[in-house]
Design goal:
It comes from Kordia periserrulae. GO terms for molecular function: lytic endotransglycosylase activity. The relative contact order is 0.08. The chain folds into four domains: about 45-90, Membrane-bound Lytic Murein Transglycosylase D, Chain A (Roll), CATH 3.10.350.10; about 175-250 and about 260-295, Membrane-bound Lytic Murein Transglycosylase D, Chain A, CATH 3.10.350; about 310-440 and about 575-645, Response regulator (Rossmann fold); about 440-570, Rossmann fold. It has 24 helices and 28 strands. Helices cover about 35% and strands about 20% of the residues.
Length: about 650
């Protein structure tokens, strides 16, 4: 190995991960139509077991090998364990003397499968059998579809009772009962429980298009077993969109296929556009899924639009300082890790990055990663650039220090290689720099926006020390009817003087702007004493929460909790039940630090953006905000310079937990 003084070390050689993309299997049902007659065919899915072949599977189901290959072209090259095959079902074959003619129907705006089937006096299944695109992609305005008209009612001979079940379902679809809407029930919950789409439910009940009312009476199909309607108290809902697959849905909702089917048994019969799925409310909160009025919101998703052929090359440039570590001494290495803050950050960030790489691998995508030790200093950072080939690199994550980010960005600018600054908010004005940490001005601006939006009906009291004239002026312009309270000489407030400013009939917003430890400790203590009496509702806010709040023995978290303290933050603490936290603890035996979590979030975000397009700037042009375990990324392009992240949280104390303030 080359001397560390002359060349930056690479962990385990290049530490190059070549993650092979897993083959994404899709299923297409082939419907054969001939002249004016057709034969309907039913299908089932088969999960391949170890040692099985196409021939053995064909024999098992009493079908020919050609029958299987017609429905599963990829099986011509053999089958793998756990892959899924579509199998034609011999037991459900219809008799050959069934004559069918067709009517050409043009789909109109807001027409549904249920409505069209009802109009022509046939079942929805009849339409799907003869219209493959509708089965796969759903109905679209302007589509022309074939409507089967049976000259003689088909009599199906089967080896099972499935015909009776279908007849029973058809009868249920045409008979209705009156249902009274209960509290916390929604159109989505009712549609899910009765196996309807939202369009079908609204076709039956046009009066509910603008919403449901508690106690409202609506019509629902009679079911042999009365469904229990899923309540918004425990569940949220999602409308399946055309072209979505089980694979894309499980990635979008962050659940396994088994979990989704268990919650939504109708999926056993296949995924269809318009289906309403339910998901536990707690799951969406844990996975940070956007929900509005108990309905999961569709957002553009880089993973759903990923190109599996985008195998990117990234560099992690971290200050491991291997030339300063005696690898032969465990005790000296431990001591170095404990004393050297930059090295500690590097190791924590790296563990999070490895988790992100593993997550990308588990999704079936590939990425090549090169890990370079830049040593932390300017000279070793320059060496890292000069001694390594960056010609095929799509992005560099790191270094940590703003001076070193400047060096790397300057050297790689001419090649247009993006450099992501992961841990510093100090501006580096190169067009290829991505500042992933929002600066203080951005944090302040986002907090002022929050205050303006939510504080107009509050009793606003401003406490600011003499050095905060600029922010004081901004607050005064937002709240012209505020009450200004000036601290006493020596930076403290007298309880008897602030009391007259508090009101019992409205929420009191006390905005505290100070870097003085004495004033912060005194103000939080005084305000807490009044809030504890339950006579006054007091909320404490600031535009700039510095380290004083966390590093002083005189500022109590219990006081901040009683005051529901609100402030802007670049991140939000994750739940201990979070999937990332659990995986990290299983891998490393400890909970992830804030830096480790940031390592995961920054790395995963860069990787999914590169999967969407290997030109990182194109992901920014989509205007999409991404969020992961604790951090979110909403990049914007500077007029002169690179990119900056506007992803800021407004958080609050909820008891002794810190949660996002919505």
């Amino acid at each position: 190995m080359t001397s560390a003084q002359n060349r930056p070390q690479l962990l385990s050689g290049n530490n190059k991960f070549d993650y092979r993309m897993k083959k994404l299997l899709g299923f297409f049902l082939v419907i054969l139509m001939s002249g004016c007659s057709a034969t309907a065919q039913s299908y089932k899915n088969h999960k391949v077991s170890r040692g099985e072949t196409v021939e053995s599977i064909a024999k098992q189901y009493d079908v020919s090998v050609d029958d299987i290959l017609k429905l599963n072209p990829e099986a011509r090259n053999g089958v793998r364990k756990n892959s899924m095959l579509v199998i034609p079902s011999k037991s459900l074959k219809t008799t050959s003397n069934t004559d069918v003619t067709f009517i050409n129907h043009k789909v109109k705006r807001k027409e549904t499968l249920y409505g069209i089937a009802k109009k022509y006096g046939i079942s929805q299944e009849d339409i799907l059998k003869y219209n493959e695109n509708v089965a796969k992609e759903g109905l679209k305005k302007g589509d022309r579809i074939a409507i089967p008209q049976f000259n003689k009612k088909p009599k199906e001979t089967t080896e099972t009772v499935e015909t009776n079940t279908k007849d029973e379902k058809d009868n249920e679809e045409t008979s209705f009962e009156i249902y009274k809407v209960k509290a916390k029930e929604t159109k989505w919950g009712i549609a899910h429980s009765y196996g309807l789409t939202i369009d079908e439910l609204e076709d039956i009940n046009p009066e509910i298009k603008d919403g449901l009312q508690i106690g409202q009476e609506i019509k629902l199909p009679i079911r042999s077993k009365k469904p229990k309607v899923a309540s918004t108290e425990n569940y949220v809902f999602y409308d399946v969109k055309p072209k979505q697959t089980m694979y894309s849905l499980t990635r979008k909702l962050n659940v396994t296929e088994e979990e989704l089917v268990l919650l939504n048994p109708a999926l056993k019969d296949g995924l269809k556009a318009g289906m309403v799925l339910k998901l536990p409310l707690a799951k969406t909160e844990e996975e940070n899924i956007d929900v509005v009025d108990a309905v999961i919101v569709d957002k553009f998703n880089f993973l759903e639009n990923a190109n599996p052929e985008n195998v990117s090359n990234i560099v992690l440039m971290l200050p491991f300082k291997l030339n300063e570590i005696n690898m032969d001494s465990i005790s000296q290495t431990k001591e170095k890790l404990q004393k050297d803050r930059l090295l500690s950050y590097a190791t924590d960030f790296y563990t999070g990055s490895l988790m992100a790489l593993d997550s990308i691998k588990s999704l079936g995508f590939s990425v090549n990663v090169k890990v370079i030790d830049n040593g932390g200093s300017a000279s070793t950072t320059r060496s890292a650039i000069y001694d390594n080939d960056f010609s095929d690199v799509h992005a560099v994550i790191g270094p940590f220090l703003d001076g070193n980010v400047n060096i790397v960005a300057s050297e790689l600018k001419s090649d247009g290689i993006p450099v992501i600054s992961p841990l510093t908010s100090k501006k580096v004005d190169h067009r290829n720099v991505y500042q992933s940490i929002p600066d203080k001005e951005l944090l302040e601006g986002k907090m002022l926006e929050f205050m303006k939006k939510n504080g107009q009906d509050k009793n606003v009291i401003i406490i600011a020390d003499k050095d905060k004239t600029a922010i004081k002026a901004k607050l005064q312009s937002i709240f012209p009817n505020h009450k200004m309270f000036n601290p006493e000489e020596g930076n403290y407030i007298k309880p008897t003087l602030i009391l007259p400013h508090l009101r019992e009939d409205v929420v009191n917003w006390v905005i505290l702007e100070s870097d003085e430890l004495n004033l912060i400790a005194n103000a939080t203590s005084v305000l807490n004493s009044y809030a504890a009496k339950e006579k006054y509702k007091i909320v404490l806010l600031t535009t700039n929460k510095d380290d004083s709040y966390d590093n002083s023995d005189n500022i109590y978290h219990s006081h901040l909790a009683n005051l529901s303290f609100h402030y802007p933050s670049i991140d939000k603490p994750s739940s201990l039940n979070n999937k990332f936290v659990k995986k990290y603890e299983a891998e490393y035996g400890i909970s992830p630090s804030r830096i480790a979590t940031r390592g995961f979030d920054v790395t995963f975000d860069v990787l999914v953006r590169l999967l969407y397009d290997q030109n990182l700037a194109k992901s920014v042009r989509t205007g999409i905000e991404t969020s992961y375990v604790e951090n979110k990324f909403d990049y914007r392009k500077k007029l002169l310079g690179g990119f900056f992240n506007e992803g800021v949280y407004i958080v609050k104390y909820d008891g002794l937990e810190i949660k996002e303030a919505k």
